[in-house]
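Narrative of accomplishments. A recurring question from our advisory board has been how the design workflow behaves on a single, concrete structure rather than in aggregate. To address it, we present the structure tokens for one chain from the evaluation set, followed by the sequence designed for it. No filtering or post-editing was applied between the two.
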């Protein structure tokens, strides 16, 4: 599982756990029955759009607390790493989802604000390991079941990641076409050569290697493996190769005339 940044503003104001909680806030969390802060806080402007930032599809559940806090939980629809997870988006001004709605990565959850127990406009993002119905696995862990999101967190705006995924997919599709075309050229070249071999078994083997379907399948599955890697690790495409390289690749592949 990967969690990206749910909002464009890039400013983490507080992390998870006792060691990342502002000392002045520790007594407040203690009074709420917690050891420390149970999520990651991001500064935002009032009304800033907040998007679903986990790379999983989930089911929305809107929430309101006794202090006027407004939020949304997104519970993973399917198992992730052998269990279920939910992401909590809190202190919202208004929500953009309804209970039971299916939420995909990058969907608009609502707009950030300062509702509930909060001292300024910010998004509280919490992560809980839970059962299928959203009930936390360990409600009494000192954080009401919340776990540290940071091992899953990549500080890149989720909409930027989606853009990269989309671009990577277009490159891959074009690369697959190109690879298949190269396979066909190779086959044409090979079929011109006469095979002189009386050994039946070897002959059959050669015929098998000459089969277009086999070549295309081999070439396409190679491209498929690369595709799977890039779509599973878009942050690598983004951080290592950079968007500009992907743009260049798209141009190169589209400009190569095939067929
Ligand atoms: Zn918080």
């Amino acid at each position: 599982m990967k969690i990206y940044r749910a909002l464009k503003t890039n400013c983490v104001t507080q992390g998870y756990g006792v060691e990342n909680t502002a000392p002045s806030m520790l007594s407040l969390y203690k009074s709420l029955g917690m050891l420390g802060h149970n999520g990651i806080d991001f500064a935002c402007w009032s009304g800033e759009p907040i998007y679903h930032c986990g790379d999983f599809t989930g089911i929305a559940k809107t929430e309101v607390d006794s202090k006027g806090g407004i939020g949304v939980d997104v519970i993973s629809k399917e198992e992730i790493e052998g269990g279920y997870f939910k992401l909590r988006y809190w202190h919202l001004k208004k929500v953009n989802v309804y209970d039971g709605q299916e939420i995909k990565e990058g969907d608009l959850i609502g707009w950030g604000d300062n509702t509930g127990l909060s001292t300024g406009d910010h998004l509280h993002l919490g992560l809980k390991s839970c059962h299928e119905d959203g009930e936390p696995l360990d409600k009494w862990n000192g954080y009401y079941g919340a776990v540290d999101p940071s091992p899953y967190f990549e500080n890149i705006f989720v909409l930027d990641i989606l853009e990269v995924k989309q671009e990577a997919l277009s490159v891959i599709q074009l690369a697959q076409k190109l690879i298949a075309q190269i396979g066909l050229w190779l086959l044409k070249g090979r079929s011109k050569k006469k095979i002189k071999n009386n050994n039946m078994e070897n002959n059959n083997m050669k015929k098998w290697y000459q089969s277009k379907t086999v070549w295309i399948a081999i070439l396409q599955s190679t491209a498929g493996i690369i595709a799977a890697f890039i779509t599973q690790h878009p942050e690598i495409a983004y951080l290592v190769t950079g968007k500009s390289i992907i743009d260049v690749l798209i141009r190169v592949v589209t400009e190569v005339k095939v067929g």
